[in-house]
Amino acid sequence: DLLLEALPALAAGRLEPIPQDASGATYAPNLSRQDARIDWGSSAEKIRNQVRAFSPKPGAWAEFRGKEVKIWRARVDSGSAEALPGQILAIEPEGIRVATGEGSLWLEEVQEAGKSRMAAGAFARGARLAPGERFT
Q1: Where are the domains of the chain?
Q2: Which one, out of 31, 40, 93, 108, has a CA that is 20 to 30 A from the CA of 49?
């Protein structure tokens, strides 16, 4: 709505630019690949936000069976989890439910190193995942 109001005013020359106050600016360091690594001890919400923040580059990732797996889409599960962080709780056609430090997360889209993105359920079937295995 704001944009729809501002564009005609901008085109008509009725907007007056206001310089940004430099005293409120902060320095943001460059992110490293290690910053994108998932810490399964974090809350499900924090991990979901990390997945969103690092998409598309460099992509949030974890290790599974010694290989890097990027997590492209995930959603917070409403249930609680009584398992080690990173442990697979359930495998369903729509995804893989993984325990976190606080709650659990449904992985919806993943990518194994050197392969294309795929639905997490398809990855689980192809890799023959089993509940109890862990992402690290």
Answers
A1: 31-127
A2: 93
Q: Where does 31-127 sit in CATH, by number?
A: 3.10.25.10
pLDDT in tens, 35-80: 999 999 999 999 999 999 999 889 999 999 999 999 999 999 987 7
CA dist., res. 42 & res. 77, Å (int) = 14
Preceding omega of 85 cis (within 30 degrees of 0): no
Residue 124 CA to its chain's centroid (Å): 18
First CA to last CA across the chain, in angstroms? Answer: 44
Contact (CB, 8 A) for 101 and 85: yes
Per-residue tokens: 6? 């501002």
Query: pTM for the full model?
Result: 0.79
